[in-house]
Amino acid sequence: MGHYYDKNPNSKSQEVSVMVKINNQSYKFITDNGVFSKRGLDFGTRTLLESLELDKIKGNVLDLGCGYGPIGIYVSKNTGLVVDMIDINERSLALSRKNAKINEVEVNVFASDMYLNINSKYDFIITNPPIRIGKKKLYEILFKAKNYLNEDGQLWLVIHKDQGAKTVIKDLENEYNVQIMCKNKGFNVICAIKRWQIDTILLKS
Ligand SMILES: C[S@@+](CC[C@H](N)C(=O)[O-])C[C@H]1O[C@@H](n2cnc3c(N)ncnc32)[C@H](O)[C@@H]1O
Questions:
Q1: For ligand 1, atom 16, which residue shows the shortest CA distance?
Q2: The dihedral of CA 6, 8, 11, 15: what is its sign?
Q3: Mean per-residue pLDDT for 33-45?
Q4: Which of 72, 132, 147, 197 is a Cys-bridge partner for 63, taking CB atoms 3.0 to 4.6 Å apart?
Q5: Within 13 Å of residue 136, how many CA atoms lie on the same side as its CB?
Q6: How far apart are CA 128 and CA 30, in angstroms?
Q7: Is the pLDDT of residue 201 over 60?
Q8: Which atom of ligand 1 is nearest to the CA of 113?
Q9: Is the CB of 6 under 6 A from ligand 1?
């Protein structure tokens, strides 16, 4: 059986167009078999997007695991930033490119298995993470994010209580300053802020 995180999904392509309202803005997205939430905007993603403090989003932004593109496209539309959008799934990447054009935003979509092809640092990493890849890889995404965040950079993620939100929050608190930004129908939107490193504080003082 195929997964939404396969590099090259082997399910037959069957593109469909979905209309979505996010915060009263209309978006059109093309989705397909073999990508996450092909029937439309996932409720966790919606909860995450509607919790973002758009006026505070500045600098470099990464949409990690972009799927067909709702996070990066929404953030770019509302901030004017050229968001980096990565995924491992080639079909998702092609849809993200297509959807960026349809929704008239400029973004930078590229393939990367986690952080493998990433050479920048970010002020925001935003993700509805791929829970199904298993805890070990999920934790790699969440904890290696620190290496790709600027000081005070923020990792935003959404996770459902039935997917282990409580444990993830507790574990993130060992490495980040964590705030729960929203809870809705079991989904938790988490903002994990990178702590200042001692050597950086010394250098700046
Ligand atoms: C839960 S989906 C979210 C998709 C999209 N952001 C949304 O909200 O609809 C997680 C995404 O992470 C991608 N993914 C899984 N493993 C990955 C990896 N190792 N590196 C990059 N992306 C990965 C999947 O292909 C999938 O598109």
A1: 5
A2: positive
A3: 97
A4: 72
A5: 0
A6: 19
A7: no
A8: 20
A9: no
Tell me which of 31, 87, 95, 187 to substitute to probe ligand 1's pocket, judged by most ligand atoms within 8 Å of the beta carbon.
Answer: 87
Distance CA(51)–CA(22), nearest Å, equals 11
Report the chain's C-alpha Rg in angstroms.
16
Q: Indicate the pLDDT class of residue 195, thresholds 50, 70 and 90.
A: confident
pTM over cut 0.70: yes
For residue 20, give both structure tokens.
């979505």
Among the atoms of ligand 1, which is closest to the Cα of residue 4?
Answer: 25
Q: Whose CA is nearest to atom 10 of ligand 1?
A: 130
Which of 78, 29, 71 shows the shortest CA–CA distance to 155?
A: 71
DSSP string, 142-200: HHHGGGGEEEEEEEEEEEEGGGTHHHHHHHHTTTEEEEEEEEETTEEEEEEEEPPPHHH
Cβ of 130 below 6 Å from ligand 1: yes
Tell me, in angstroms, the distance from the centre of ligand 1 to residue 130's CA.
5
- pLDDT for position 205: 59
